[in-house]
Design a protein that fits this description.
By secondary structure, the protein is an alpha/beta fold. Among the domains are: 1-22 and 34-39; 42-84 and 153-191 and 202-217 and 283-333 and 358-372, no CATH class. The chain contains 14 helices and 11 strands. Strands 1, 4, 5, 6, 7, 8, 9, 10 and 11 form a 9-stranded mixed beta sheet that branches. It has a two-stranded antiparallel ribbon with strand order 2-3. It starts with a helix and ends in a 21-residue tail after the last helix.
Length: 470
């Protein structure tokens, strides 16, 4: 372990002990005692693991993403959705295995590329997941007798709550908090948490900074890492100017950051140069491709970064990609299918690319969105909701199954907070905890990643294999 790694591990130990002491009132005494011995130990074996968040901004319409298709439930679905309902005959080719009680779902026809993954046991469905602070019944929600997530149904706030457990303005996400715990395991700590979609709180930690990269690669410092107005000498002069030691503290801090950025650009560019384009053929990057889409381009870069993990000395990484335009208050029937077509192709292509690398069991990808939407129609679309259904994909996933509770479709059901807005039955903290344990976070450290997990009895969905080879 390098000197820097020792410092990071010591800093992480002190921070974790402080955070765990704050959480002690909600945690059993025995767990806190155990934490004293485990607070400095992140469970990272010699293998590599990457977690990839695919965030669907705007609030994905889950009602037309995963559709009830058994006769009784489809009849209720069609009654509630009205003109927004997917025709029953269109679901025949994408039906999924039925639940034990006979409930059956089908993927949206546009998500057909994901069907083979579900059938092969490498895609799971998490039903009705969303932000909660503690287990909440419909009666408690209506009476406001328990703590509720802040500013429900607000885009900006719920995006932040999903990604960080805090309202808009939060600065650390649960992906970043996992990065904090794993930081000292990586040879290049700067590349622990990476975003291919700009600034995102999900991959921001206390010490794990978000490294932003574009779909074409790292961004150089203009004029200092190439020719300046055609002059190599000019570029060299600029480089000296913006990296040399300065007396003024603020100037020196800026130059240190610039030096680090330039060094990271060189390291990352060199590592990516060694990645074959054949590996990502399933994720077209050419603007002339008939399957070109922004999500696929982002996932192509993630696949290339994962391919370069050994060259970069990485053991654990968290990635963020995203896609927008899901806020479909109108035009849902015209716009939503096209969005899902891009999602289905991008996810399936990414899975194929990762499988080519022989890292299928080392990479787990999941979808997320700030909220689901109303089951009822507003005339031409759906409105802001709460709980939603999401996918978890990868070789370490216990796929071909559903997790959580299937909500009733009927208006006035036990999960209906109004207009078919679903009260979640699984919390984001529980969802995050399941992924964090696979990533290597110990049970005693889960409250550092998912701060409300103690309110749910330290219980989470078991959709991940967490053995030695998981």
């Amino acid at each position: 372990m390098t000197h820097r790694s020792h410092l990071l591990a010591r800093r992480a130990f002190l921070q974790r002990m402080g955070q765990l002491s704050l959480a002690s009132t909600a945690m059993p005494w025995a767990i806190n005692l155990a934490a004293m011995g485990e607070a400095a130990a992140f469970n990272a074996s010699d293998d590599y693991k990457a977690l990839v968040c695919v965030f669907l901004y705007g609030g994905n319409d889950h009602g037309n993403t995963l559709v009830p298709c058994d006769p009784d439930r489809y009849a209720e679905y069609a009654k509630v959705r009205g003109g927004l309902a997917t025709p029953r005959a269109a679901l025949d080719a994408t039906q999924l295995a039925a639940l034990p009680d006979g409930t059956q779902y089908a993927l949206a026809p546009q998500l057909a590329p994901l069907l083979p993954l579900f059938e092969a046991g490498q895609l799971a469905v998490q039903l009705n997941v969303g932000p909660l602070i503690q287990p909440t019944t419909l009666a408690q929600f209506r009476q406001r007798s328990v703590p509720l997530p802040p500013k429900l149904f607000s885009h900006n706030d719920q995006q932040s709550v999903w990604q960080s457990s805090g309202a808009e303005g939060a600065v650390r996400g649960w992906g970043g908090r996992m990065g904090d715990l794993a930081l000292s395991q990586n040879g290049q700590s700067l590349f622990t948490c990476m975003s291919v979609t700009g600034n995102a709180v999900f991959v921001s930690g206390q010490n794990a900074m978000t490294y932003q990269i574009g779909t074409r690669g790292a961004t150089p410092v203009e004029g200092a890492q190439d020719k300046l107005y055609g002059s190599a000498a000019g570029a060299e002069a600029l480089k000296r100017l913006i990296t040399e030691t300065r007396r003024h503290a603020m100037e020196q801090a800026l130059n240190r950051i610039t030096t680090r950025s330039m060094s990271a650009y060189g390291t990352l560019t060199s590592a990516l140069d060694g990645v074959s384009d054949d590996m990502t053929a399933e994720l077209p990057d050419s603007i002339d491709s008939p399957h070109r889409n922004g999500l696929a381009a982002q996932l192509r870069m993630v696949a290339r970064l994962i391919s370069a993990h050994q060259a970069l000395g990485m053991k654990r990484q968290v990635f963020m990609v995203s896609m927008g335009d899901f806020d479909l208050h109108d035009g849902l029937l015209q716009k939503h299918p096209a969005l899902l077509t891009r999602v289905g192709r991008a996810l399936a292509g990414f899975h194929q690319a990762i499988s080519k690398l022989g890292l299928g069991a080392n990479v787990t990808t999941f979808t997320a969105s700030e909220f689901g939407r109303t089951l009822t129609s507003n005339g031409d679309g759906s409105d802001h909701g709460w709980g939603s259904h999401h996918f978890v994909m990868g070789g370490a996933v216990k796929g071909g199954r559903f997790y959580g509770q299937a909500p009733q479709v009927a208006l006035g059901g036990p999960e209906d907070t109004g207009q078919g807005r679903l009260l979640p039955s699984t919390s984001v903290d529980q969802f995050a905890a399941a992924l964090a344990r696979w990533f290597g976070v110990s049970d005693t450290e889960l409250p550092l990643v998912a701060p409300h997990i103690g309110n749910f009895g330290m219980q989470w969905p078991e959709f991940m294999h967490t053995g030695a080879n998981a």
